[in-house]
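Marked as duplicate of an earlier ticket. Keeping the data here for the record.
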Amino acid sequence: MGVGHMVLYRFLFASLGMLPILLAARRNQESRWTNWTRREKGTLLLSSALGIPIQFLLQFEGLAHTTVSHAALMVGTMPVLLALGATLFAGERLDWIGWLALTGSTMGAALIVLGGRQAGTPGSVPTLAGDMLVVLSLMISLGWILMNKSLMQVHSPLAVTAYGILSGTAMLVLWVVAVKGPPPVANVSLTAWTALAASGVLCTAATTLLWNWGIHHVPASRAGVFLNIEPALGSWLGVQLLGDKLGPFAWVGGGLILAAAVTLTARGHEADPEVLLE
């Protein structure tokens, strides 16, 4: 199936997984949708539009035109993007080490892109368009992360996650059906259904809930260090399981991205009193 229909099925399964969470959130009187202010509802809807239909359609379209290893290494730019977002929108300041890390990460991403080949079956070799779509999706997800964190200062991670996934899925349904038509049903294999269900419930609903719960308890920029697991593990799995091949530029670029992310997020942080109290 195409990218749009695959992403749609993934989030329909994620929505099913969110229904028990939504019921649990509604038991909390403060988390009821009717108790959200108009501004909070607007922020949630904008965040959902960025984080689900826009981000995921771009990301998986990019993944369809690059390799898993390249896409995973590109995720290494996310901790640096988080730090940059905190500087631009949350009043934090980057010192010279931070700007050096940001420059190194940008150079690393450029090396990975330059190391891609342009021929072959889509998804079997990296392409410039595929890599750039993945990076663009990461930039968009930055807005989703920062807006969700602001909402969780007032509402619980359960409520923000449940309402966000359900509203984002509704937008996704409207877009995909209008542009791509109804999703296929009859010709989808059992293996595909199993993969869609697992990616929806485990890789979308569960991970979004865990991520939101995590950034509710630690600063978003500090949480970015854990994103370094994905480029390291994802690129290795791509090589070992899917036969991806990384050229010398990609290895050097990936090393620069990881070094920049670790430097920026693993430096000494003083404990946040509010986090300790929680």
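See parent ticket for discussion. The radius of gyration is 19 Å.
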